[in-house]
Amino acid sequence: MSESRFRIKEYTDEALFRDTTIGPIGADLREFHGDDISTLIAEKKDYAYLYHLSELRANVIRQYPFSGQEKVLEIGCCPGITALLAEETAAVTVLDEHAILRVIDSIRNERFRNITYVDKSMEEYLDRSEDTFDLITCIASFETIPLYYRTEEEPMKAYQTFLKTLRKHLRPGGVFLAAVPNRLGLKYFAGVKEEHSASYYHGIEGFEPDERVRTFTRKEWTELLDDAGFRHVTFAYPYPDHLFAMQIFTDQRLPEIEDADNDYKNFSQMRMATFDEAKVMQTLTENGLFPQFSNSFLITAE
Question: N or C: where does the chain have the smaller number of CB atoms within 10 Å of the terminal CB?
């Protein structure tokens, strides 16, 4: 067991569990002695437990061709995803500035001995560490990067600096793997609120220059990655989205009408339903537009 993992697992500051919105998850995990975490999720009937603990969160990368020998950097910890990475690879380093998330992740995944938790700021670790990795994952965390790259006053500069810095931590042949929302995702037109702002049509109407949490279109992602020096980029399309993916479409296998649910199920907040999403999704596919309006992207870049 690594030293940094031991410090996290033995964390005893009870205020950490009391004073944060997700602290009760950690407290409940410490008292949970069952073998199936889904029973705790079902008992609590709380979206936060589903979001942070469910193994369904890992569906978005479950089909990735792991060799079993990878050294992985996970940026932004999600316990369900960390578990899959620990099962499928040689070593996982988890980088997340939120102590309570690291504690929850550690308790949820205490059976693994190949996970290390970094107790440093994201910017400090990435700028000063000489660690290199075969795979760097950024699952549902890229949108908030400017909140942690604090020396960059301009949000877009923060995203660009982050991606360029990541390349320095990739070994030759290494892969950056990102699962992210699409700013032009069909669900946002159909009446689903933006995850981070909890408002309708925020992303599709465009962000203000100083907004430090934002999403990107396929074209914008392509430009960001090219600017950072990634030359081999592929897009796949998690459905219904990257948070709880049930299918992964590709440019070679786009959705058919029977693949779509009638409506996107939004577990975290209320939504409107402005049209039949399955029918619109089929229209987009038939006209070659689905890749631009997929709810989410699964991006691999080298």
Answer: N
State the Cα–Cα distance between residues 35 and 14, nearest whole angstrom. Answer: 25
Work out the end-to-end distance of the chain between its first and last CA atoms, rounded to an integer number of angstroms.
Answer: 31
pTM over 0.90: yes
What's the longest Cα–Cα distance across the chain? 56
Using alpha carbons, list the distances in angstroms from residue 199 to 191, 255, 275, 276, 295: 10, 28, 18, 21, 16
Under 8 Å between Cβ of 169 and 157: no
Q: Is 131 left (phi over 0), alpha (psi -120 to 50) or beta?
A: beta
Strand partners, 95: 75, 118
Q: Does residue 196 have a pLDDT over 70?
A: yes
Selection from 285, 191, 297 nearest residue 242 by Cα: 297
SS3 of 63-95: the string is CCCCCCCCEEEEECCCHHHHHHHHHHCCEEEEE
pLDDT at residue 23 in the model? 82
pLDDT confidence of residue 2? 39
User: Which amino acid is residue 252, in one-letter code?
Assistant: Q
pLDDT band at 92 (very low <50, low <70, confident <90, very high): very high
Among 252, 272, 265, which residue's Cα sits nearest to residue 295? 265
Task: Give the Cα separation of 233 and 221 in Å (integer).
Answer: 10
Whole-angstrom distance, CA of residue 233 vs CA of residue 39: 39
Runs of H (alpha helix) within 186-297: 186-189, 202-205, 218-228, 277-286, 290-293
Contact of 264 with 190, CB cutoff 8 Å: yes
C-beta of residue 59 within 8 angstroms of C-beta of residue 29: no
Mean pLDDT of 125-145: 96
Q: Which residues pair with 72 in a beta bridge?
A: 92, 135
